[in-house]
Amino acid sequence: MAQDKQHPLPDGILPLRGSVTTSFAYTTIKDRMPVILTKAIDTLTRHLHDLHLDEGPAAQSAKTAEAKECISTLSKLKYEMIRDRRVTYVVDNESDAETWNFLVDGLKESWGGDTWFSAPWLFVECLMYRKIQEVFNKTENWKNFDVFAPQQKEPAFNGSVKSMIELSKHLANVESKMLEREGRSLALREFIQFSLWGNQTDLSLLINVNHADMHKSQASSAQNLSEFEKNIIVNDMDAVLEKLLNIDGGRIDIVLDNAGFELVADLCLADFLISSGIAKTVMLHAKKFPWFVSDTTPRDLEWTFAAVEKKAVEVGDEGLKARAARWTGLVKEGKWIVKVDDFWTTPYSFWNLPTAAPELRSSLNESSFVIYKGDLNYRKLVYDAEWSTTTPFATAIGPVAETIKAPFVALRTCKSDVAVGLKEGQEGDLKGRDSDWMVSGKYGMVQSFGC
Ligand SMILES: O=P(O)(O)OC[C@H]1O[C@](O)(CO)[C@@H](O)[C@@H]1O
Ligand SMILES: [Mn+2]
Question: Is residue 199 lining ligand 1, measured as CB closer than 6 Å?
Fold first, then answer.
């Protein structure tokens, strides 16, 4: 990973930071990030307890000692965060550590602050997940442990099964009607909308959600889709459909976001892109290590294929079972390519992509179309800055407009202090309707470039 200075923002545009006490960034660093650490500690503590019951004494003592060490380092991290201490280096042997530390060193000079609240929010929030991974990287026995899986990702998946079954049935119906172009376009519109609304179930936001209730909030049928549609505040869907329907067999990239219901909706879309002939291949970009609680790692993909198939068998849903089997087949045949790149788990905005990750950039330039999923990818596209909401998207993506040639769409539900491309007066209307419109996940954006 290249050591690359953070791209500067235009004069007068500041990055979002926790030091602005009225911001969602502030609430996130003050309240939500410490809770995420507490949950990680709790998960490890429970595992320690289970270890005592399950494994032999020798394995126990080494693993137990390491887990205790992890718990104490995570508690220290939480302490430093709450007290707004200076952020510390990433200390492990991974290939990205040097880059992280180069950026930690440059914080003061680039942004005037190097503590948890004074440094850019994007930087410190990403850093927390990298520091959690550092804790496990330094052990022998816990390197591959996903601390978010047992108590968050897996229960959330189980709580979403009802929605997944409904979604799969509905989409099978939609697919069967897609014979001509018009049918294909209508079908694609639905697949994209489900992929968009799937983004509501991001577990770093839903830290206190009851996983058993996930179904209630998920758009999984045509009926709730039309209810949700009025909440798409920027909607470039028609242009996106036009572009996609004219690709005729190229490669489409999906920069994945969360595992669980969102991933299942994304995989349904990826599957449709192939089965409809729109794309020959789909490249699925996953995260290298557990990230923002629920982001998809390669392990999550495998786990999801198996878990969907198992659930389908349990409930006797042949359609869903065939779907899951087809997904495994698509990977085997090379029609779905799963890719991991260090870049997605750095704090860089996409403005840095050409210099920080030149190979990834060349690869994206071979794509016919890129779909960026979720809120964090949106923040990274627009550099997580204090843009006014009427800033044109083309301005807020800065150099990305020229450096990544493939046309793209961002599908995100709004969960942070940034949204651009709104019409004059639209922000006021939204505020009038819902003071939390920017962060509640209730509103969505289908925002494209190059279409
Ligand atoms: O999974 P997503 O949609 O990228 O959401 C991640 C988002 O989670 C949050 O922690 C929720 O507020 C934001 O900081 C971040 O943008
Ligand atoms: Mn996410």
Answer: yes
Mutation choice for ligand 1 from 32, 39, 123, 202, CB with most ligand atoms inside 8 A: 202
Query: Given pLDDT bands bounded at 50, 70 and 90, which one contains residue 55?
Result: low
> Is the beta carbon of 202 within 6 A of some atom in ligand 1?
yes
Span from the CA of 243 to the centroid of ligand 1 (angstroms): 28
- Domain count across the chain: 2
Q: What is the pLDDT of residues 24-34, one digit of tens each?
A: 999 999 999 99
Q: Do 185 and 295 sit in the same domain of this protein?
A: yes
Residue 197: name the closest of 178, 221, 165 by CA: 221
Residues 7/11/12/13 CA torsion (nearest 10 deg): -30
Query: 211 and 89 in one domain?
Result: no
205 Cα to the center of ligand 1, angstroms: 6
In this predicted structure, what is the pLDDT of residue 61? 82
Whole-angstrom Cα distance, residue 28 to residue 137? 25
Do the Cβ atoms of 100 and 128 come closer than 8 Å?
no
Q: Could you report the predicted ipTM of this complex, rounded to two decimals?
A: 0.97
